[in-house]
């Protein structure tokens, strides 16, 4: 039997049913219908086919490596000489993926892992909850409580101010404060709130809008002192975040009466002027407080925290002023200020026996109920705040000094010219006149500057200074009004060589009106100075009156000297004196006119500065009960002489005050005052 030649490397062939060799071995299989040939990796016998181990297609013999495409296949030995052209190999098929057998895992493991994860998360929540509820509970509870708490001020009832007879000049009435809680006001509601509240409460719309729009605030005050009926209208609007709270409002039932003394309480509830300012602490009392819990809609929680510290009411103040006398004084000075075109004016009424001030009237005035509508220049107390040169009304101090220490008597004669030269300066009387032989009483009655200078030469300048101090010059009166000036009185060491002469007739020194009134009260009281008094005492909440400390008193001049001066001053109100317009029918009147030049600030001189016109006196002269002083600053119409414009006001006010106090005429006759010296 003939042996078959060996097949190609990689496998031995076998015959198939069609008589073809069926080559087996790796890389021999081809896809059906695909032509053989080519050297690509997908050709029969290629590396890829061998790696995949697929059987070769039957009858296909791969060409030897390196043979050209389509080259004749070399003979393989044996008797076969002819070769069949190789068919084009088919691309190999992708082997099917091996099936991974499904293994059912234990479900308990997954369940345990899930439960463990859930348990871990819950433990975190539980730990945080324990932290909030136990460890940090106090801190968060306190923060929450603070957010709910609101401290409300409980204002104290301010004490009343009354006159000597208990008539109210300033009092406190119930009112309401309107506030907003911006944290609960919705932005869409803000404009509606502004449109409703601004005109109702008399507020600027911009202010209300700004208040209700505060992002981090829970309490913004919109208005103070709202009347209760008006507050009810506000609450009737039912705006969320708008509320009212109780407070008090200051009212002045007498209007402008004694406004310069009483003053006013400003919008912040503090004294803004007068006694309301200087006695604010006593009048205001001490405010209390209330801590309450507020719900998110701005309402108080009924059963929430409520801590209250009660307020302490202020004490009332009773003044020495008498309403009727004060009213008459204000009417008289206001009328004269208008008639003379004066810048301002004042009237003081005083009881010389105890120093009580019965009237402190100033013009122009203002209504403290509407102080914001008035000129702020009128808010003060000119009777103590405004200093002026007293002029001839100050001559009584020189008279007291020369009568006590200079050996001068009311009958001492002086040859008085209309001018006198002292050093480099020349001093004049108020009007030219021929030389006159006047007694010292006549010098005072005629208000001669020259005669006063001549009399002052009988004392030293130190003596003159001491008497001025003893009468209260250069010192505050201490009546309690704010901003008081002590006036100007330099020590003699600061006087120039000729200062003593104008000081003797009331120039080159300055005083306030109360200081000057006190000088005449001292003469009227027999030479004993009783410090002026405005506050009679205080009143507690239950109405108990506590009198003020008795005013200080001391003797300044002897009773005899005071009597001599009083008699000389009666000559002023005669037809031969400078103030016949001060006479009052049935009463003896003693007084003195004053017409002093005002320093012109533009030049520091008296030229063009204007005048201070005044009159100070007391009645009845033989038993003084009342002192009245009138001052007019810078009159511009008609006469500027004190005897012409101030004396009539004195007469008007004194007549009314004597009637109010029921002071009868004494019926005695005035002593004859010798004006001219006998030859």
Brief sketch in words of this structure:
It is found in: Membrane. Helices cover about 30% and strands about 20% of the residues.
Helix count equals: 20
Write down the overall mean pLDDT.
85
Radius of gyration (CA) equals 58 Å
Which structural class do the helices and strands define?
alpha+beta
Q: Uncertain runs with pLDDT below 50, 5 residues or more?
A: 1-61, 66-72, 75-79
Largest sheet, described in full? Answer: 7 strands, mixed
User: Separation of termini?
Assistant: 206 Å
What does the overall shape look like? elongated
Content of β-strand: 15-25%
In total, how many beta strands? 25
Helix content: 25-40%
Secondary-structure blueprint of this entry?
Blueprint: E1 13-15, E2 21-23, H1 47-52, H2 107-135, H3 137-148, E3 149-154, E4 161-162, E5 168-180, H4 187-201, H5 205-212, E6 220-226, H6 228-236, E7 242-251, H7 259-262, E8 264-265, E9 271-273, H8 274-278, H9 280-284, E10 288-293, E11 306-309, E12 316-319, H10 323-340, E13 344-350, E14 357-363, H11 382-385, H12 395-405, E15 413-416, E16 419-422, E17 425-428, E18 436-439, H13 440-446, H14 449-456, H15 461-470, H16 500-504, H17 513-524, E19 528-530, E20 535-539, E21 545-547, E22 553-555, H18 559-570, E23 590-597, E24 611-619, E25 626-633, H19 642-645, H20 647-660
Parallel strand pairs: 4-12
Antiparallel strand pairs: 1-2, 3-10, 4-5, 5-6, 5-7, 8-9, 10-11, 12-20, 13-14, 13-25, 15-18, 16-17, 19-22, 20-21, 23-24, 24-25
